[in-house]
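As described in the Methods, two query proteins were run sequentially through the folding procedure within a single session, without resetting any intermediate state between them. The first query and its resulting C-alpha cells are shown here.
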Amino acid sequence: MIKKGEIVYGKVTNILGYGAFVTVDNYDGLIHISEFSDNFVRSIKDYVTVGQQVKLKVLDVDEEGKRLRLSYKALNKSRGVKGEIPKYTIGFASLEKAMPKFISEQFRGNK
C-alpha cells in the first residue's frame, strides 16, 4: 500500500499536453504539468521521456481506483534548466586585475 508523502519510482508510460502517465507497482499515476516545475513548462518532454524510470513524490492516493497523483518537481528541482548561469564578479577590483593582460594583448597586436 502506497501512502501520501511517500517517495516512489515509476515508469513513464505516456506523455500528453497536460501531464505524464506513470506506472508505480500496480498503480496508475499522473504527474500533472504543474508538478514538473515552478516555472513555465513548454514541453513535458524536456523533463521526462516515455519508458524512463523516475523518482517521484506521492501527493494523493486513490486506493479504490489504484490511482496516484504524483509530483516530479518536489524531488527534481534542478531539472529543466538548459544551462548554468555564469558567475561574474562586478566591480573595479576585477577590472584592475584584468587591465595588465588587456594592455599587453593590445601592444602585442599592434607590433
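Immediately afterward, the second query was submitted; its sequence and C-alpha cells are:
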Amino acid sequence: MTKSKFVIDKLTKLFEQGLISYKDLSSEIINILKSKRDEIIFKMKLTSKEETDILIKRVENLEKKINNLEKKIAKKKSIKVKKS
C-alpha cells in the first residue's frame, strides 16, 4: 500500500507542477521508476553505484560493436554477387 501511495504522490506532484505534456510526464515516470529500481538494487547490495555504471557502459559499448559488425556483415552479403 505504501509503495502505490508513493507513486501516486509523485504523480500528483507532477500534475501540480504543471507537467502536462506527454514527453515530460513520461520522462518523469521513467525517472521515478529508475530511481526505485536503483534503490531496490542497492538495498539488496548486489553492486555498488560505480560498479553498476561501469557495467552499463560496458554493455552499451558491446551493443555498439555488435551493431557495427552486423552492418558490416550486411554490406558484405549485399556486395557479393554470384557469377554464372
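Residues 4 and 10 are 10 Å apart (CA to CA). We note this only descriptively and draw no conclusion about the first query from it.
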